[in-house]
Amino acid sequence: MKKTLQLPHPYFSTRPSWKWFILTTVLLGATMSALDVSIVNVAMPTLKGTFNVSMAVIEWIAMAYMITLTIFLPLFGRLADMYGRSKLYNAGFVVFSIGSLLCGMSPSAAFMIVSRVIQAVGAGLLQANSVAIITQAFPANERGKAIGIQGAVQAIAMSIGPFVGGVLIASVGWRAIFYVNIPIGILGTTAALFILPPNQKIDKREKIDYLGTTFFASGLAFLVLAFNEGVKLGWGSQTIVMYFLSALILLTLFIITELRVEHPLIDLKLFKNATFLLGNLTGMMSYYVLFAIMFLMPFYLQKVLGYSVALTGTLLTPIPLAMAVVAPFSGHISDKYGARIMTTLGMLVSALACFALLFMGESARLPVLVAVLIVLGVGMGLFTPPNNSAIMGAAPKEKLGVAGGVLNMMRSLGLIFGVDISGVIFTTLEHRYLAEKGYQNVNHVFANGSIPLIVKDDAFMHGFIMVMGVLLLLNIIAAIFSVAKKDEGMLDAEAAKEFLDGV
């Protein structure tokens, strides 16, 4: 009987240290997808000029990526549970690399948008499976540390993205920011083939929930579109109302479908577990807070404090760098003492940063501001790895892919809601303040020469303080939810060994 080559070879894959090679392979995917998000944002003005299109068209280069990534994460996680996580993770490297190549070759904005969709499919395959593969490879008493290392690498990649993107655009051209992904993709594909564990044999092939997938993806797409387009079109416009109504109907149909089909896209029973439910809710809240601040701070630093673009970019890097430093230690501590302590502490530290931002004012001192941003990064670093570890620990091992997909989907939704809802709150209050001072229907506040600078600053701070107050409240709610969670993911040494033997 002819023997087939098994990759990785059992001699290596059964060694206790092999899990670190698996983690390294996952980190390649995490680096590539995180780097791409922050790199592309720097290139938007250049792409607008190159393709000679409106800002509305250029926005779709980012929006198409985000919508595609968000709506397909649970599906990719479900497919991974059905057909093998390693197989789909490897496919993610291939698809992302092809999408990056096509982006770099783009002759037009329309071609670029389609290429970004392909890229997002690859990123979704990577993100939906990354935490699941780590959870599968590591025992519960090491899972938090491993997820913390992954979080640290992602934070570093996001923090250096703008710098790398700026250097590549200035020295080589904008196409290089996409081509840089290709060698990483080739290395990742090779590593995944030889290192990731073999796909598990599935005794019973389950059916794909096509109807539920259609309802979920289309409903979530309408929801994301509504929040993205609401400010531009007006929240009371017929288009936005129809978007929200469509999302409500389709997502309701999705829930009805999931409760009736034998093999649902997302097993709603997962949300009966308080740790899984509250972990995902607090995870979304944390990213809401993080990206709301990352969205508003550049305007505050440049328009109110008068800092340059270069200094503004530098001042934002302490947040991801602090996350990168703290995340591995936080994950390691949560492995010993449980996730509840660290997640609660993380949200309280983040709340402290938001409270401090309430009092920054129009003449904030630079050292104090940097210290506050570092505190925010520390809070997020304390919270994220233990929370992710608790979520994955609360899911049965045969549903780790779906759990990872839902986890990353909630992160994406937190990003979208944090930027869009905070933007609505800020803009509404800023314009209301200006209207009270006699300046009606002002679209570009700081570009308007008829408004005194002190009034502009006061109007900005009026909206800014209210947003920080909302973020402070969200942090406190997330901390309360974190206290309510149980450390179900913690296993003793014997249970951890049984888990590994089962894998």
Structure overview:
The protein is mainly α and 503 residues long. It has three domains: 7-202, MFS general substrate transporter like domains (Growth Hormone, Chain: A), CATH 1.20.1250.20; 209-262; 269-503, Growth Hormone, Chain: A (Up-down Bundle). The chain is 80% helix and 0% strand. It is built from 18 helices and no strands. The protein has helices at 10-13, 18-51, 55-83, 85-105, 109-137, 140-171, 176-179, 181-195, 210-233, 238-260, 274-304, 309-316, 318-337, 339-357, 366-393, 400-436, 453-484, 493-502. α5 crosses α16 (400-436), α11 (274-304) packs parallel to α16 (400-436) and α11 runs antiparallel to α17 (453-484). The chain is globular. It starts with 9 loop residues before the first helix and ends with a helix.
N→C terminal distance: 27 Å
**Name of the top-level CATH class of the largest domain:** Mainly Alpha
The helix fraction, in percent, is over 70%
- The share of residues in extended strands comes to under 5%
What overall geometry do the principal axes of the alpha carbons give?
globular
Secondary-structure content class: mainly alpha
CATH topology of the largest domain: Growth Hormone, Chain: A
> With helices defined by DSSP (H or I, 4 residues minimum), what is the helix count?
18
What order do the helices and strands follow? Answer: HHHHHHHHHHHHHHHHHH
Superfamily at the CATH H level of the largest domain?
MFS general substrate transporter like domains
Tally of individual domains:
3
The CATH architecture of the largest domain: Up-down Bundle
- Sheet bearing the most strands, described? none
Q: What low-confidence regions span 5 or more consecutive residues with pLDDT below 50?
A: 1-5, 489-503
Rg of Cα set: 23 Å
Query: What is the count of β-strands?
Result: 0
Q: Please, what is the average pLDDT? A: 84
